[in-house]
Write a structure and sequence with these properties.
Layout lengths: L1 H11 L2 H24 L8 H4 L3 H22 L1 H8 L3 H34 L10 H28 L2 H19 L6 H5 L3 H10 L14 H25 L3
Helix pairs in contact: 1-6, 2-4, 2-6, 4-6, 4-7, 4-8, 6-7, 6-11, 7-8, 7-10, 7-11, 10-11
Length: 246
């Protein structure tokens, strides 16, 4: 509990997490409002439409999570932390836990605010949370944000440099997984198992999203897979951190 408290204080007493949180919420909610306001009168706004901006929020959350690690390496405070707590794995797990919890809260606030704004703009459309699929579309965003944050903490630990970690994360999240589909023959098969593609399947497969019918994993299986990728990457990062100088 002491480690968790220390990591919470370190995270929340700096400006970057607050700025990232504001930007993530602004992008997520703003995009939902833009979609709801711009839909033609003949088209209906769905619950899934209100969550279309969450992908931009994920990118910002991963920036927040990576900076939580790389900033410590940049200013050398990670050395003091590792001297005070020789068990580096415990430090990184505590950091990942705090960042994931904050990301979960931001994701839930953004998701429900997006849904609420869409409902306020188009109250006559099919935006009521009337099924389990609708609830997962909204409430599941926080879970995806949390595990995405763990992945970013792992990448930040492995690379240690802010520019490198952020470049890799943003390029991968915003471009690489989609570009993989362009590889002849094997591209679509590889794309089906890429982590953020699987995470999107968790959010939307039960309502007939793309690839839902022939998905290799069930909806909750998709979440478990995404969580597994996050845990494995964190374990690799901890193993590397133990073997090299801070």
């Amino acid at each position: 509990m002491t480690l968790l408290a220390v990591e919470r204080i370190k995270l929340l007493t700096t400006r970057s997490p607050w700025w990232c949180a504001v930007i993530a919420l602004a992008l997520t909610v703003g995009f939902a409002g833009l979609i709801a306001a711009s839909l033609p009168s003949g088209e209906s706004l769905s619950v899934a439409n209100t969550q279309a901006g969450h992908q931009f929020g994920i990118a910002v959350i991963m920036v927040l999570a990576a900076l939580a690690v790389t900033t410590e390496y940049r200013f050398g405070t990670i050395r003091t932390t590792f001297q005070a707590v020789p068990k580096r794995g415990s430090v990184l797990v505590a950091k990942a836990t705090i960042v994931a919890l904050l990301s979960f809260v931001i994701g839930e606030i953004g998701a429900f605010a997006s849904w609420g704004l869409g409902y306020a703009i188009r109250p006559s459309d099919e935006t009521a949370l009337s099924s389990s699929a609708d609830w997962i579309h909204v409430a599941g965003v926080g879970l995806v944000f949390a595990f995405a944050a763990v992945i970013a903490v792992a990448v930040g630990t492995l690379i240690r440099h802010s520019a490198g970690a952020l470049s890799l994360l943003l390029i991968y999240v915003l471009a690489v997984e989609n570009l993989v589909q362009l590889i002849p023959t094997v591209g679509p098969k590889i794309h089906e198992w890429l982590p953020f593609t699987v995470a999107e399947r968790f959010l939307g497969s039960s309502s007939g999203g793309p690839g839902a019918a022939d998905a290799a994993l069930s909806q909750w299986g998709s979440l478990a897979y995404f969580a597994g990728v996050a845990v494995v990457l964190l374990a690799i990062a901890i193993g590397v951190a133990k073997k090299r100088d801070a």
